[in-house]
Amino acid sequence: MRRVPDKAYWEKPQGKNEPLKMEKRFRIVPRGIGLVIGCNTFPTWNGYPGMFASLATGNGVVVKPHPNAILPLAISVAIARDVLTESGFDPNVVTLVAHATGDDTAQKLALRPEVKLIDFTGSSANGEWLEKNARQAQVFTEKAGVNQIVIDSVDDIKSVARNVAFSLALYTGQMCTAPQNIYVPRDGIDTADGRLSFDQVTQSLSEAVQKLLGDPARAVEILGAVVNDGVAQRIEAARGLGQIALDSQPIAHPQFKNARIRTPLIVKLDAKDDAKYLKEWFGPIAFVIATNDTKQSLNIARRAVRDHGALTLSVYSKDPDVVDEAVSVAEDSGVALSINLTGGVFVNQSAAFSDYHGTGANPAANAALTDAAFVASRFRVVQHRMHV
Q: Do the Cβ atoms of 123 and 160 come closer than 8 Å?
């Protein structure tokens, strides 16, 4: 916005005649009302980017929280209104629209002519409806995807398994960045301690999850609670897809007896079972998939991102050529890639303003939450000019 000058002087020579002279003035004009449609898993983390990007560019914001997660955004809106009032603005620059489950409030708001910006996080069906029908607005969507891990070779399988186990368990896998598909060559992988079979790799992952969640008091703090009935039903459905390597178990919360806590489910599949694993199974559900080799693993990963979308991709390999190929797959398909994570950084964690969350280059999201385009399209430059 600061790059746009307030005014410019323009002059065109006319030979013997007086030159044409004009003064041109430029004004930053907000697009209109911004509508933030909140999700039920990360209402503030996913709501703040659109909310503040719209406010920073001069647009009023209507915040519509998910019916299952009203309070966090209600608190945020209340504080925003207090700050606006203290700063001399009308508090109605930011408003809240809460509603009951099952009504059409979101659709009605999204189609209002005053709404020119929409930020949405949620299911692919609802996101695609907004993209197709809210034609009067610039729509930013983050939808479903199939996040993947490619395991080619490792130095220390225990450190890899610990890292992956935490990613699978964190918030019961109910993160848009949580890994789902783990590709391992069917003839095993090389490690610093020798070769491990496909089953041994799967066993290492399962044991790491069990060890991480072995203490119920600690487990409930990592897992949190299952957000809705759909997740619980999905776990039951996934149990029948293949051989169970690690079954999902209920855990009683020591403080909240009615909390629904579930540990991750790990199911073994074959690469040919793509109809089962090439869709999002939102929740604590992971598939360890036997492939012919790492080349096939990367090819499946590329196809999955292109066709179904993804927010994260991870690779484990000691071979620089494999890592380079994984980078090419990520850039070609448009997904963020993590390489050989074994420490305190996990594939499903995005650091605000240091990671590009989403790329806008695959079906899982049509924008990145921290690039300039996410903000710059929320205002327009309107000029007027006159002779001088």
A: no
Comparing CA positions, the residue from 365, 367, 366, 363 lying closest to residue 307 is 363
What is the pLDDT confidence band of residue 361, given thresholds at 50, 70 and 90? very high
Do the Cβ atoms of 31 and 59 come closer than 8 Å?
yes
The DSSP 8-state label assigned to residue 365 in this structure reads: B
Residue found by looking up tokens 């659109």 in the block: 50
CA distance 362 to 315: 19
Give the pLDDT confidence of 93-134 residue by residue, as tens digits.
Answer: 999 999 999 899 999 999 999 999 999 999 999 999 999 999
Q: Does domain 29-143+365-383 have CATH number 3.40.605.10?
A: yes
Q: How many CB atoms lie within 10 A of CB 66?
A: 23
Question: Could you tell me which residues come within 8 angstroms of residue 188 by beta carbon, excluding any fewer than 6 positions away?
Answer: 195, 196, 197, 198, 200, 201
Who's near 242: CB < 8 A, 6+ residues apart?
267, 268, 269, 270, 273, 276, 287
Going across the sheet that includes 33-37, the strands are 94-96, 61-64, 33-37, 115-121, 138-142
User: Which one, of 183, 206, 198, 348, lies nearest residue 265 by Cα?
Assistant: 206
pTM exceeds 0.90: yes
Residue 372: partners with Cβ closer than 8 Å, 6 or more residues away: none
Residues of the chain within CATH 3.40.605.10 domain(s) are 29-143+365-383
Which fold, 148-339?
A: Aldehyde Dehydrogenase; Chain A, domain 2 (3.40.309)
Confidence of residue 327 (pLDDT cuts 50, 70, 90): very high
**Residue 289 per-residue DSSP state:** E
Closest CA to 369 of 353, 385, 383: 353
Rg of the chain's alpha carbons, rounded to an integer? 25
- DSSP assignment string, 87-133: TTS-GGGEEE----TTSSHHHHHHT-TTEEEEEEES-HHHHHHHHHH
Query: Which DSSP state fits 5?
Result: -
- The CATH 3.40.309.10 domain(s) of the chain lie at 148-339
Is residue 346 within 8 A of residue 167, CB to CB? The reply is yes
Region at 122 (left for phi over 0; alpha for psi -120 to 50; beta for the rest): left
